[in-house]
Amino acid sequence: MIDGNTRLTGIIGYPIEHTLSPAMQNAAFAEAGLNWIYVPFSVDPDHLAAAVNGAKALNFAGLNVTMPHKKEVIKYLDELSAPARIAGAVNTIQFDGDRLVGHNTDGQGFIDSLKHDAGFSPREKNALLIGAGGAARSVAVSLAMSGIRQLAVINRTADKALKLQESIKDNFPDCIVKVLSPDDEKIVSLQSESQLIVNTTSIGMLTNPGLPLGMERIGPSHLVYDVIYFPAETEFLREAKKRGAETLNGARMLLYQGATAWQIWTGRPAPIAEMAVALTDELELKGKVDGQSKPAARTNPDRI
Ligand code: ATR
């Protein structure tokens, strides 16, 4: 029941209709017995400053931030966590008294998912990262923070991959970062020496079918991750599974980034199991409603 003690949280994005987060976050508040609420807000980019300052004036406890505001919102914040600063993107705002603190929980969500769902630690491992957009940045920063030995970034547009390489090298001098174009012959041998292969591109979504990488060398020694969660099994994951690789999709990253945000706001451990059930139900519902025309997308949690 909403009353004078209800704490406010929510998500700002544009558009926001397809967000899966309210179901997951409100289920967590209910489970924890907290008088809190999470509401989606459609915020035109021209009104971003007013929305953030308005939320502060209204005594919000927290906000998630999604497309297209994740970079732009930084200028309205007082402080950034290290992952948010290095990735150059904020997906979670903590209203800490008068101070607005920006976090990026996307990368933590990815790492938590590796750990809890596959028992995988990035420390001293080699990873192949396909893509160099917003999702790739969060994943790359979190892998570097978790002690990955080598990151090989493959991207259609070389410039973006080079920028990502530069920011990882600047912040994590011990991490080896290689950049390759999608037709580079060295990719085959890099596949063999990598334990983790991550697709962060939109190749594999219903609107952009296909494979983001040749599958020749993929086998049982690989953990293959696709940040896409709709469809739940992309062609990339299907082919990887056929070749004996362990596979994970972006739904778990989505879950854990939300859980981390919830923990930042409430200071309590998140009720993961209940959040997972709510997310699965919502994905099923949205999948049925949206069908082929409006795929719910992928975890760039930009699109959560
Ligand atoms: P996000 O912020 O969601 O990660 P983005 O910044 O637009 O989205 O990044 C999308 C990624 O998918 C990029 O790496 C993009 O490659 P480019 O940098 O060359 O644009 C990649 N991508 C999207 N469609 C692609 C396609 N058809 N072929 C190859 N790469 C593609």
Describe this structure as you would to a colleague.
This protein is an alpha/beta fold and 304 residues long. Helix content is 39%, strand content 19%. The chain has ten helices and twelve strands. The strands form two sheets. It has a six-stranded mixed beta sheet with strand order 2-1-3-5-6-4, with helices on both faces. A six-stranded parallel beta sheet has the order 9-8-7-10-11-12, sandwiched between helices. The longest helix is centred in the last third of the chain and has 19 residues, at 272-290. The two termini are 26 Å apart. The model is unreliable at 291-296 (pLDDT under 50). Residues 131-136, 155-157, 160, 200-203, 208, 300, 302 line the site of 2'-monophosphoadenosine-5'-diphosphate. The site of 2'-monophosphoadenosine-5'-diphosphate has 17 residues, from helix 5.
Write a concise synopsis of the structure shown.
By secondary structure, this protein is α/β, with parallel strands linked by helices. The chain has helices at residues 21-32, 48-57, 82-87, 106-118, 134-145, 158-171, 186-193, 235-242, 251-266, 272-290, and strands at 7-13, 36-42, 62-65, 79-80, 92-96, 99-103, 126-130, 150-154, 176-180, 196-199, 223-226, 246-249. Helix 4 crosses helix 5 (134-145), helix 4 (106-118) crosses helix 9 (251-266) and helix 9 packs across helix 10.
